[in-house]
User: What shape does this take?
Amino acid sequence: MDGLPLIVYTDHQTCSEIALYGVFMRCFRAFTISLALLMIFFLVSCGDTTVSQQNNPGTTATSTTPGTPIILSPQPTTQGNTATNLRHIFYIMMENHALNQIIGNTADAPYLNQLASTYGTTSHYFGVTHPSLPNYLSAISGDFQGIWDDCRSGTAVTCPPAEFATSLSQNQYNGASSKAHLFNGQTIVDQLEAHQMTWQAYMQSLPTAGFTGASSGAYAEKHDPFMYFSSIRNNPARLQHIVPFTQFNQDIQSANMPNFVWITPDMCNDMHGTSSCSSSNGLIAQGDNFVQTTVQMILGSPAWKQGAAIVIAWDENDASQSGCCQSPTGADGSTLGGGNVPFIVVTSHGPHTISLNDASYNHYSLLATIEHLWNLGCMANTCSISSSNLMTKLFT
Assistant: This one.
């Protein structure tokens, strides 16, 4: 019998016993081969599943420890998502001017008008409320944090409303007056770092990285929203990402510019004005010059070639309280908005004149749009902004 072991038998064994033994051995060999093939098929199937999970760009596990949540990463290719097209977003915040003071004013703001007519803009962009500080807080956290003042940050700092005092309900007034000015809420910094993305905040006239003083020359903490959140202010590593604007000149030439770049001009260059400025005249022209110099540096940078957008927004319009998109309302139901302000988006896709005039937007809308572009999720008031009310057309 081929393939069977040699059988030695005695006269006590019959031929039928030997035949039965041979059949048994054939069956045993067939069973063994079948079992081996089944195990190989199982291992190959498991291996294919593992590879499929590893190649899925939608999820990235940060740890294999049981119970550790999986952090979702931005999808490189998802319908309606432009994350791969915009690796960098530069956010420049200007101050205290109405739309009609800038757009159309080619005498004082020729460069800003050139950008507005060449790239993207909207005539219905609003500050969330008044004064400056709650608008800056809104821009990075999706919430004006229930205050109406420009006070410095701190756990022991409380201030009564400096705006809308007669329009607020008693609960609004009391709540704002007792609110400590170091907030525990989430910010875009948390979202970016959770998605392995980088950030940097450049503050003009800031004396040193991570400076925690209320002011220094033309630098004002009220225009530095990062200092008002405990998750940043109490984190030494994050404080080192809040740096003087002088560092921007060197960093912008690098091929490793952060994904999210915040820029606050000092109060002489943001069109606000302060006693430390050489003159209160010509603030619009001075701000226009700052924007031109800064934008030109970005346009010539490696980051621009990698895919980028520049956002130029104004925090509020001093002369109006119009608003939209979850701006607070007063005791009588009136909108306590920040007024109609200019808004411009420049992208590395090239000139593509577009103006969104069919809907209204504010700092919440812009933050929600950035979150959508990079799949960061949402927080606070940005979660109630539908996809149809985003500003993505200006970025694509």
Residues 154 and 390 are 33 Å apart (CA to CA). The mean pLDDT is 84. The radius of gyration is 31 Å.
